[in-house]
């Protein structure tokens, strides 16, 4: 289904009508969430967003060559020029510029685990995710000091995180 959608909107069968029907509305820039639309992968959007960032950086709209890049650039430009119905588009440039900085400077740690959930993940992930969300939120909001992070790690490991880490490491060894 994804291949069909991609082909219709930006692939070999792409037409402006298909693009605007299934991807972005050409009049208001809204994203079209049709039953056909999957979540985009980075592979499908990287070129368009890189071109859009380059077009903004160089102030040269011709750098936005891909159909996606042109639409994003045009909608973001209109939003930045005050078209309120397109406000969300004005956030694309700074967000993707930051994403490329993080990516290019390797300021992230990629999760290399792509296997099925481990037994402990199935049992404990909801609890561990809740603990993580609550702890991070408290630290970010100033309701807890950064020292709480060390306690979080200790509790996370005790509540199943250490076992999950062991299971994931065993999985990694099994595929090498």
UniProtKB/TrEMBL annotation:
Full protein name: Extracellular solute-binding protein
Organism the protein comes from: Cohnella ginsengisoli
